[in-house]
Amino acid sequence: MQEFLQRDLGSSLLSISVLLGWLGISFVLLRIVAITIKKILEAVFKNSNQ
Q: Average of pLDDT values for 1-14?
């Protein structure tokens, strides 16, 4: 941790923001996949009930 704080502050902030950006992108992609699977399953079960 000490070595991380002794590095250039700009590069540290940049790496933190890149990590947060990737986390945000992956969260959005997982959310889209979950909604898509939910809609597909709803459509399949709605058709099988009729």
A: 73
Is the pLDDT at 37 greater than 70? The verdict is yes
Greatest alpha-carbon pair distance for the chain in Å reads 66
Provide the b/e sequence for 23-48 (b: ≥16 CB within 10 Å): eeeeeeeeeeeeeeeeeeeeeeeeee
Output the CA angle 16-20-21, nearest 5 degrees.
115
| Tens digit of each residue's pLDDT (9 = 90 or more) over 19-29 | 999 999 999 99
The single residue listed with the structure tokens 């459509």 is 43
Token pair listed for 9? 């502050």
